From TrEMBL:
This is Transcription termination/antitermination protein NusG. Pfam families: KOW, NusG. Keywords: Transcription, Transcription antitermination, Transcription regulation, Transcription termination. CDD domains: KOW_NusG, NGN_Bact_1. GO terms for biological process: DNA-templated transcription elongation; DNA-templated transcription termination; regulation of DNA-templated transcription elongation; transcription antitermination. It comes from Barnesiella viscericola. SMART domains: NGN (SM00738). InterPro entries: KOW, NGN, NGN-like_dom, NGN_dom_sf, NusG-like, Rib_uL2_dom2, Transcrpt_antiterm_NusG, Translation_prot_SH3-like_sf.
Length: 181
């Protein structure tokens, strides 16, 4: 009826419910025979940095909203079981009732993107140098421009000399609070 080949398949899920689908499938993999046929459930995400109330906030954002990637051997009732998982709409692609696996190049691209996101661990560092002109983009001095006097790469802080009311005033700012002019 179906080929006994291990491959990556894409499940279309209700948008915003991808993590619930992963949770349910992971639990079933551990507790039932489904674990013999389904090996990995993956939702590729990326880390997004934002500044809220003066604090850096890290959020995870889905790279492919509405999709869950599953590494499985689709034999017997496995297709039916995956299709009928809560919050799953159907498999992506495929003709008739047989889902189509991703091509190796697509899998490598998807897994490569996931690995890159895990390696990045911290915010991509912007390197500033003494003497550069920067503009403050957050905080009480938003909109002011100044010249970098000191750079502390370990703490990701800068000492910026800003002219306020005609006088030079030193400010200690985080790298995320300024941008190059």
């Amino acid at each position: 009826m179906s080929e006994e080949k291990r491959g990556w398949y894409v499940l279309r899920a209700i948008s915003g419910k991808e993590s619930k689908v992963k949770e349910v499938l992971d639990a079933e993999i551990k507790n039932t025979d489904l674990g013999n046929y389904v090996f990995q459930v993956l939702i590729p995400t990326e880390k997004v940095y934002t500044v809220r109330n003066g604090k850096k906030v890290v959020k995870e954002k889905n790279l492919y909203s509405g999709y869950v990637f599953v590494e499985a051997i689709l034999v017997g009732e496995v297709i039916h079981h995956l299709r009928n998982t809560t919050n799953v709409i159907d498999f992506l692609g495929g003709k008739s009732n047989q889902p189509e696996p991703l091509r190796p190049s697509e899998v490598n691209r998807m897994l490569g993107a996931v690995d890159e996101m895990q390696e990045v661990g911290d915010e991509p560092a912007v390197v500033y140098h003494v003497g550069e002109t920067v503009k403050v983009n957050y905080g009480p001095f938003n909109g002011f421009s100044g010249i970098i006097e000191e750079v502390n790469n370990e703490k990701k802080k800068l000492k910026v000399m800003v002219k306020i009311f005609g006088r030079k005033t030193p400010l200690e700012l985080e790298n995320s609070q300024v941008e190059r002019e």
